Automatic annotation (TrEMBL):
<dbReference type="InterPro" id="IPR001579">
    <property type="entry name" value="Glyco_hydro_18_chit_AS"/>
</dbReference>
<dbReference type="InterPro" id="IPR013783">
    <property type="entry name" value="Ig-like_fold"/>
</dbReference>
<feature type="domain" description="Fibronectin type-III">
    <location>
        <begin position="185"/>
        <end position="266"/>
    </location>
</feature>
<keyword id="KW-0119">Carbohydrate metabolism</keyword>
<feature type="signal peptide">
    <location>
        <begin position="1"/>
        <end position="35"/>
    </location>
</feature>
<keyword id="KW-0732">Signal</keyword>
<dbReference type="InterPro" id="IPR036116">
    <property type="entry name" value="FN3_sf"/>
</dbReference>
<dbReference type="InterPro" id="IPR050542">
    <property type="entry name" value="Glycosyl_Hydrlase18_Chitinase"/>
</dbReference>
<dbReference type="InterPro" id="IPR003305">
    <property type="entry name" value="CenC_carb-bd"/>
</dbReference>
<feature type="domain" description="GH18">
    <location>
        <begin position="276"/>
        <end position="561"/>
    </location>
</feature>
<dbReference type="Pfam" id="PF00704">
    <property type="entry name" value="Glyco_hydro_18"/>
</dbReference>
<dbReference type="GO" id="GO:0016787">
    <property type="term" value="F:hydrolase activity"/>
</dbReference>
<comment type="similarity">
    <text>Belongs to the glycosyl hydrolase 18 family. Chitinase class II subfamily.</text>
</comment>
<dbReference type="InterPro" id="IPR001223">
    <property type="entry name" value="Glyco_hydro18_cat"/>
</dbReference>
<keyword id="KW-0378">Hydrolase</keyword>
<dbReference type="InterPro" id="IPR011583">
    <property type="entry name" value="Chitinase_II/V-like_cat"/>
</dbReference>
<dbReference type="Pfam" id="PF02018">
    <property type="entry name" value="CBM_4_9"/>
</dbReference>
Length: 566
């Protein structure tokens, strides 16, 4: 969050716009695989090391962990001008259609084929914390008897992993892998966690399986590549039955024995909030926006984040000092009374830690303890309902998780826990901020990502979007919604006026359209999510002060819309 109006945060160059977009292809005549179809790739699971594979600049090696199937996988590391390309020449038949697929994780990963004699194709995915299947299809030309399949990463990005390649189609005579058989039934299905609108499940791996399908009350709920899944969009305080089946190219196994789970009365932390909520940051300083007391904040705001707590000389510890002089003589006693009055009206008031200039660092057990103890002391002193994490200069997922869990143990289940990461922080579940949010999901109230002061970013569909549009909001929110957060834990953060941020301000109409798109599937831009998220928490703004400067135009338009969501 910006303390100085109209001053952009450090420039963030994001090279994603230079990436090649995955090709969306439709092939006439591509139908069901025939009985003669095989996987024509050799050493598809790297069980024989790098046999049959060639990797550029010695960038590839085999590892025993992580693996998708079997006992080995490829690890390839881009370096300098080398993108870690690993390839294999595969025998194929002319005038035939093949399905090319592989499982990847880690850094940016590409999968493609050249030498088809028709149209060479490729697909890709941004970095992933878990195994993800890439898949595309190609048709060979009239004289094509071999093709080159490949995978590679991207310059300057972390290593990627690849496993279980498949070039599935008519036998090209090159001695590929044997046709798979239907995997066995998964065992050990159990419930690993619940919220008011989600159930998390885990089960034992099945040899030969490349994926798993989860069924809720007999209906397909989701499909995953690993041995765990979270089913979202559930009703609170309701019992559901779940089963899981293993899958591969040969088909689906019989379903497992059923387990029953009951969702909680309220999801994450922060009981007492409305189903859909509006968050606003209140400025404890004068930067040209309207000076406010807590009592001046519009009633449209359900969560008021007091900005900011400050670092002390003790690593991890924070303090809060009311800027009485800058706030026209606002006293501590008046502040505390106003906090109590907002709470009596059903609102929540939290202390925000960080901001653009925040220097709080939690990077070991001692600083984690200091953070928890000092924040809890502020909650007791000022009556705050919880804490907001707005650390814009990086955080350590391990120790911030430790700190927040220690704080929750002190404050109890009613503690409000909010976060306000930047867009770059939530591009992948492997990012520290995203990891932290998932680590504390059972006590997390809402993540209000800042959709401003940002460069262009990737949406969940792999396309690049620029800030300032409905698509930017919805396609980026989709990453969080499909990446493990409950919809009730996702909000859209925007500046209240053009003066509230260096860039990224949009009209309240754009915010409301994005909310409609995500919750109801209406008023979308070019991007439309594959499903709706009626439990989406709501919206956030920086700040209540800039909102007041503009006559509360933002909260008067967005607030009633949020509260009227389904």
């Amino acid at each position: 969050m910006d303390r100085v109006p109209g001053t952009p945060r450090r420039t963030r160059r994001f090279w994603a716009g230079a990436l090649v977009s995955a090709l969306a292809l439709t092939f006439a005549g591509a139908g069901q695989a025939s009985a003669a179809d095989v996987n024509n790739a050799r050493n598809a699971g790297f069980e024989a090391g790098l046999g049959d594979w060639t990797c550029s600049a010695n960038s590839g090696t085999t590892v025993s962990s992580p693996v998708h199937g079997g006992t080995a996988a490829l690890r390839a590391t881009p370096s300098g001008q080398d993108n870690a390309r690993c390839s294999q020449t595969v025998a194929v038949r002319p005038n035939s259609t093949y399905r090319l697929s592989a499982w990847v994780q880690g850094g940016y990963a590409y999968l493609g084929v050249t030498g088809t004699g028709t149209t060479d194709v490729s697909t890709w995915t941004p970095d992933s914390g878990g195994w993800k299947q890439l898949s595309t299809s190609f048709t060979t030309g009239s004289s094509t008897t071999s093709v080159t399949v490949y995978t590679h990463g991207w310059y300057g990005q972390p290593a990627y992993y690849a496993d279980d390649f498949s070039v599935f189609g008519p036998d090209g005579g090159g001695g590929g892998e044997p046709e798979p058989t239907i995997p066995g039934t998964p065992g050990g299905l159990g419930v690993s966690g619940t919220t008011s609108s989600s159930v998390s499940l885990a089960w034992n791996p099945v040899p030969g399986a490349t994926g798993y399908t989860v069924y809720r009350d007999g209906t397909r709920a989701t499909a995953v590549s690993g041995t765990s899944a979270t089913v979202t969009g559930l009703a609170a305080a309701t019992s559901y039955s779940f089963r899981v089946a293993a899958t591969n190219a040969a088909g689906e196994s019989p379903k497992s024995a059923a387990v029953t789970a009951r969702t909680k009365e309220s999801g994450g932390g922060g009981g007492g909030l409305p189903r859909h909520a509006v968050t606003g940051y209140w400025q404890n300083f004068d930067n040209g926006a309207a000076v406010q007391r807590i009592s001046d904040v519009s009633a449209q705001y359900d969560i008021i984040a007091v900005a900011f707590a400050d670092a002390t000389g003790t690593p991890g510890a924070v303090t809060f000092t009311l800027d009485t002089a800058g706030l026209d003589g606002y006293t501590v006693d008046q502040f505390k009374a106003d906090v109590r009055a907002k709470q009596a009206a059903g609102k929540k008031v939290v202390i925000s830690v960080g901001g653009e200039k925040g220097t709080v660092s939690v990077n070991d057990s001692a600083s984690a303890t200091a953070f928890a103890n000092s924040v809890y002391a502020l909650m007791r002193e000022y009556g705050f309902d919880g804490v907001d994490i707005d650390l814009e200069n990086g955080l350590d997922a391990t120790y911030m998780t430790q700190a927040l869990r220690a704080l929750s143990a002190k404050a109890g289940p009613s503690m409000i826990l909010t976060m306000a990461p930047q867009t770059i922080d939530m591009q992948s579940t492997s990012n520290s901020y995203f990891k932290t949010a998932l680590n504390v999901k059972d006590i997390l109230t809402v993540v209000n990502m800042q959709y401003y002061n940002s460069g262009s970013m990737l949406g969940c569909d792999g396309k690049v979007y620029g800030q300032g549009s409905v698509d930017f909001l919805t396609a980026l929110a989709c990453i969080q919604l499909e990446g493990g957060l409950d919809p009730s834990q996702v909000g859209l953060g925007l500046p209240a006026s053009p003066r509230g941020a260096g860039s990224g301000h949009v009209s309240p109409t754009v915010v409301n359209n994005a909310l409609d798109c995500l919750t109801k599937g209406t008023n979308c831009g070019t991007f439309k999510p594959s499903r709706t998220y009626p439990d989406l928490r709501g919206a956030m703004t920086w700040s209540t002060n800039w909102d007041a400067t503009a006559g509360n135009a933002w909260s008067d338009a967005v607030g009633p819309h949020v509260h009227a969501l389904p």
